[in-house]
Task: inverse folding
């Protein structure tokens, strides 16, 4: 075996930990590896029920438009096309991901009704005997659009007179308990700016990021003899998918059974429930198995990416490196619908101002609607881009002060017992020790005083 | 939807299907993605896999490469060693097992680096079609394609003399990535100055192009950083760069002189 | 042209099936022959998850119209292990944690099989080039490269000659 077993450093927090690790520090074979290397692991698309129908979506060719009419004549004439579903076929034509965690509103149709709000929004689902026929049918659907002005930038979307993206909300932002954004108010940042030796303000920005799993999003739905639907899916969230699908189908949860858990890469991109509800409706109306799987273009274009963010960070800094105030204005691009981005924006707010004890913090975190692909979950969504911005900010502050960036962080790192901006007392912080260990591993010299710092004491501050 | 896949066993038989509107397919690396996504523009495919066009002959300083020869065969051919580094920059070994020399002439930039090489080599295409057989410079085929019903059966090129072949491709990854700028050239020097040059560029226009403005500035002058930078700047006049997922038009144009220089003097 | 009967030699066994014009080798393997190890990741030759060996060379099965390889030999991951015994590449992938979600694994292993059959002692650079058409989104490639190099070492130590079918290697 050629992999490296990193030794565990058991020195920090020795008193707080029992050294009874049974897995950490040992080699544990993956339980699924044998299936993978023999090709016997069953992914959702590896099932081949007899009589399988194929579903392909006709999607919006516009970023923002009113639908004047949909003509299915040519599509229905394609040999092999058995059925075309529109919004009228979906029992409860609303995708309601946040309902399950008590957050509304229900702002996204399963199939577009009278308007499309992003390029690639699903309009109608063509069900056919073969994949080729379904593709041909989907290509022959004709939609008559009335173009509407579109908005693609978060700050433009919030400006006076911007086109309204989503009527469900009535404005281009998500309302948090009556507020126009998620806010943090702690101390008095303006006073801190007045007292600071330096004030630094920079802007950070990210594009949407597609998770790009090698297996695209999809499912195979098989009607069972007892009337239930068996859903083979590559969802990352089996029960979430089951609950949401049942809400959309308006059937009891026990009418559905999910077969899942094997995911060909997800990275957050397979959390939204985008294929199962329509495929289930198709299976119900035809009483035959139906497969709906994104092609690569769809995966890239319409599966929800990590949200684009724009972040302004303004810091009040003293000569010795202490940050005494931090003001953050964050815009998260939700795309045309909410999905998980209002939640992601809350996560972003919870993550500010980074793992540092700053006595004055002000943050406005806006969840903004634009005519872009709805964004959603991806690996630490809501915090990853913020971390990029916060840590870039720390490096730039250090550079501006001609200071070692690790010492700047050690000086400002939160310690156990500190009151965070959210008025929670920090515990189990360990940041100081992690920085010290990192410095040691990369050969970055720290003065004795910084090496003696601890997250459990205030030594050196 | 595809209604037929023909497997003619000779170029003449392929010509019959082609003349009836069949879609000529080499390795399928361009045609099959369109078939798979339902975007095929024709409903009959004509595979050249069995048409006897996969041979490679190198004799008396001239290479004759069948249009259906896979790129991996070109890469492995002992007589075409000078092309090996270029072939290594094209797609992956797996795709090179499928993709063909003929097909490479017809792919959209920023793909088709072998076509850039063939342009620099001044290759000739052998073409079969309803009107029989003809030959045409590869430059003409790259610029305006072939007539309806015609297809390329082989490319013929003189091997460059030792020390006269130059190739460099800038890409986002070290392997298996499309071109940002590709430079291929046959350039002769004597007493330290360029006596002749045929330099082709990829990645910077919808089709591979000759860098005629650069060639003009290089002739009679040494392959020095100054001359090559000047030539590279002049070469912008020969290009029509585009934006894509790999690079912006601005970037391609901006780095063109750098990569022209690197092609010759590293 | 109607559907036609096509035959292939798959993992050493002659197989016959009915194919609609333009059906890919991948679809035939998966849907007609029940060999689902090769996966559809992109259907455009970009991801390598459908890689199988056609005449012992890696090919993306999604780009091959099956009629064009009629009567040729095709090798898939299902044909690599024999009597339930993993070959060196497979066991090396397991031991070196070269799998995560498993979706790219079939393609990676088939590319490795072809590489090691032709070159028993590849350099790290050779391995990287060989898998350059195979996308892995989970492991970051490093464990895969290590696993292939380790598999080469195991084969050399076991005295497996290049080009020899893996089954013989396992039975030693």
Result:
């Amino acid at each position: 075996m050629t992999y490296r077993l990193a030794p565990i450093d058991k020195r920090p927090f020795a008193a707080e930990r029992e050294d009874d690790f049974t897995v950490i520090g040992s080699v544990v074979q993956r339980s699924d590896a044998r299936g993978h290397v023999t090709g016997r692991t069953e992914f959702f698309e590896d099932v081949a029920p007899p009589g399988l129908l194929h579903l392909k979506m006709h999607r919006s060719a516009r970023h923002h438009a009113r639908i004047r009419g949909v003509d299915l004549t040519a599509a229905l004439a394609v040999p092999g096309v058995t059925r075309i579903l529109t919004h009228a076929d979906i029992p409860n034509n609303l995708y309601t991901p946040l309902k399950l965690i008590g957050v509304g509103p229900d702002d996204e149709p399963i199939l577009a009704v009278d308007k499309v709000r992003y390029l690639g929004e699903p309009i109608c689902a063509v069900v056919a005997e073969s994949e080729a026929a379904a593709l041909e049918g989907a290509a022959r659907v004709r939609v008559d659009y009335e173009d509407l002005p579109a908005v693609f930038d978060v700050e433009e979307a919030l400006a006076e007179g911007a086109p309204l993206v989503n009527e469900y909300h009535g404005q281009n932002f998500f309302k948090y308990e009556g507020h126009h954004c998620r806010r943090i108010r702690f101390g008095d940042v303006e006073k801190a700016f007045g007292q600071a030796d330096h004030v630094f303000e920079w802007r950070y920005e990210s594009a949407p990021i597609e998770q790009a799993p090698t297996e695209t999003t999809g499912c195979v739905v098989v009607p069972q003899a007892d009337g239930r639907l068996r859903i083979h899916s590559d969802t990352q969230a089996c029960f979430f998918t089951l609950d949401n699908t049942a809400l959309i189908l308006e059937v009891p949860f026990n009418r559905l059974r999910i077969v899942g858990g094997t995911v060909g890469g997800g990275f957050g991109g397979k959390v939204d429930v985008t294929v199962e509800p329509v495929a289930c409706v198709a299976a119900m109306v035809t009483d035959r198995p139906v497969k709906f799987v994104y092609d690569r273009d769809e995966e890239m274009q319409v599966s929800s990416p990590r949200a684009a963010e724009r972040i302004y960070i303004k810091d009040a800094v003293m000569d010795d490196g202490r940050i005494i105030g931090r003001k953050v204005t964050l815009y998260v691009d939700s795309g045309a619908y909410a999905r998980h981005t209002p939640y992601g924006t809350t996560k972003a707010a919870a993550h500010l101002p980074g793992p540092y004890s700053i006595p004055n913090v002000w943050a406005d975190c806006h969840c903004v609607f634009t005519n872009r692909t709805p964004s959603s979950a991806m690996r630490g969504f809501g915090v990853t881009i913020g971390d990029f911005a916060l840590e870039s900010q720390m490096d730039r502050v250090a550079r501006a002060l001609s200071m070692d960036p690790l010492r700047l962080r050690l000086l400002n790192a939160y310690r156990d017992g500190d009151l965070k901006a959210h008025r929670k007392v920090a515990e189990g912080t360990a940041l100081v020790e992690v920085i010290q260990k990192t410095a040691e591993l990369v050969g970055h010299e720290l003065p004795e005083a910084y090496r003696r710092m601890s997250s459990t004491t205030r030594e050196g501050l | 939807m595809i209604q037929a896949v023909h497997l003619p066993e000779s170029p003449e038989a392929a010509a019959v299907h082609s003349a009836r509107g069949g879609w000529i397919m080499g390795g399928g690396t361009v045609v099959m993605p369109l078939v798979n996504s339902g975007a095929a523009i024709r409903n009959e495919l004509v595979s050249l896999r069995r048409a006897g066009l996969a041979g490679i002959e190198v004799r008396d300083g001239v290479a004759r490469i069948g249009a259906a020869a896979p790129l991996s065969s070109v890469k492995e051919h002992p007589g075409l060693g000078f092309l090996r580094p270029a072939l290594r920059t094209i797609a992956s070994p797996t795709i090179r097992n499928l993709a063909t020399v003929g097909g490479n002439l017809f792919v959209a930039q920023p793909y088709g680096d072998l076509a850039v090489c063939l342009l620099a080599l001044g290759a000739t295409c052998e073409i079969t079609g309803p009107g029989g057989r003809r030959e045409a410079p590869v430059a003409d085929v790259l610029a305006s394609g072939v007539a309806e019903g015609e297809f390329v059966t082989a490319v013929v090129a003189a091997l460059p003399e030792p020390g006269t072949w130059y190739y460099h491709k800038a890409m986002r990854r070290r392997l298996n990535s499309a071109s940002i700028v590709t430079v291929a050239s046959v350039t002769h020097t004597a007493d330290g100055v360029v006596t002749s040059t045929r330099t082709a560029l990829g990645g910077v226009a919808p089709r591979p192009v000759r860098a005629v403005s650069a060639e003009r500035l290089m002739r009679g002058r040494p392959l020095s950083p100054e001359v090559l930078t000047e030539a590279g700047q002049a070469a912008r006049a020969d290009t029509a760069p585009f934006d894509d997922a790999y690079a912006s038009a601005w970037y391609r144009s901006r780095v063109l002189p750098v990569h022209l220089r690197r092609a010759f003097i590293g | 042209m109607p559907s036609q009967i096509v035959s292939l030699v798959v993992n050493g066994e002659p197989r016959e099936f009915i194919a609609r014009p333009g059906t890919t080798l991948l679809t035939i393997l998966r849907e007609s022959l029940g060999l689902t190890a090769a996966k559809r990741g992109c259907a455009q030759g970009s991801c390598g998850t459908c890689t199988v060996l056609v005449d012992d060379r890696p090919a993306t099965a999604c780009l091959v119209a099956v009629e064009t390889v009629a009567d040729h030999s095709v090798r898939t991951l299902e044909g690599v292990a024999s009597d339930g015994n993993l070959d060196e590449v497979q066991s090396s992938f397991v031991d070196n944690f070269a799998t995560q979600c498993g979706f790219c694994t079939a393609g990676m292993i088939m590319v490795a099989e072809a590489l090691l059959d032709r070159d028993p002692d590849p350099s790290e650079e050779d391995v990287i080039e060989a898998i350059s058409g195979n996308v892995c989104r989970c492991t970051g490639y490093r464990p895969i490269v290590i696993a292939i190099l380790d598999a080469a070492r195991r084969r050399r130590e076991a005295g497996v000659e290049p080009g020899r079918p893996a089954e013989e290697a396992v039975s030693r």
